[in-house]
Amino acid sequence: MSRGTANPVLPFSVTTHPKIRSRAVSSAAEAAGAAKIVRMPLYICGAGGVGREALDAALAAALDVTAFLDDARAGEKVRGLPVLRPADVHAGDYLVGIAAPTARARLSRILDDLGLRAVTLVHPRAVISPETTLAEGSLIQANAHVSSSVTVGPHVQVHYNATIGHDTRLDARVSVYPGANVSGNVHLCADATVGSGAIVLQGLTVGPGAFVGAGAVVTRDVPADTTVVGSPARPLRRD
Ligand SMILES: CC(C)(COP(=O)(O)OP(=O)(O)OC[C@H]1O[C@@H](n2cnc3c(N)ncnc32)[C@H](O)[C@@H]1OP(=O)(O)O)[C@@H](O)C(=O)NCCC(=O)NCCS
């Protein structure tokens, strides 16, 4: 897993992360001193809602996106960009902008195998606190606040206005939807999702593949592959 400062795409303007700031300085110095800078194409995989929101984050960070990658819409133009098939690209950087963790897993594997490199995209209006690390492929959206000493795994998504408390761990492909509040010392296991406006209380574990419904208040650990709703959150019954 790569650390925050090792990631090739990090917008710098408003983040409070001191390591990110120092990378911005070194990038500017490199740019000033280098005669030739070869920029890799940047692809967003998925031309649906999350993909287009990822494009917004890239534009806010003054990054050029080359194309969307999306089998279902190949040949179209979306937001003025061409849509290519993932199998048609062979070099460059990518971010998977798709909500479903299973699709994120499948497509990141395909693109890694093709030799592309996953990058981290942080909206300039997100806050990333000190000692927090962001793995490759993560998307941190506008007005998200990721607090101190948080570990963000690969291909994680933290959406608009969500907050992640100190010392929390987000494993691979976790999704935190808009306006959710994850408290401190929480562990969100791989492929877990926290729905819009939900709250996860401090110190709890949300198991692999679990889904916290919109607006739920999680007061106990959530078992793997379980959907919980309500306040206090309870497993969704499907009678
Ligand atoms: C929890 C969730 C995954 C369940 O989805 P589902 O399996 O399709 O469930 P259904 O819509 O069939 O609803 C089943 C029952 O659960 C209830 N329910 C669904 N979501 C609920 C929620 N978040 N809180 C409370 N009850 C909920 C429904 O009212 C329904 O109850 P009923 O059987 O008495 O009518 C989904 O409703 C949810 O909350 N998704 C998160 C949405 C979100 O945050 N989107 C953000 C996108 S940016």
> How many domains make up the 3D coordinates?
2
The appropriate CATH architecture of the largest domain is: 3 Solenoid
What class, by secondary structure content?
Answer: alpha/beta
Question: CATH class of the largest domain, please?
Answer: Mainly Beta
Task: Report on the architecture of this protein.
It is globular and about 45 Å long. Helix content is 17%, strand content 24%. Mean pLDDT is 88; it is low at 1-36. With 239 residues, it is α/β, with parallel strands linked by helices. The chain has an eight-stranded mixed beta sheet, with helices on one face. The chain has a six-stranded mixed beta sheet with strand order 3-4-2-1-5-6, with helices on both faces. The chain has helices at residues 18-33, 49-60, 101-113; strands at 42-45, 67-69, 77-78, 81-84, 93-96, 117-118, 121-122, 127-128, 133-134, 139-140, 145-146, 151-152, 157-158, 163-164, 169-170, 175-176, 181-182, 187-188, 193-194, 199-200, 205-206, 211-212, 217-218, 227-229, 234-235. Bound molecules: coenzyme A. Coenzyme A (COA) binds next to strand 24.
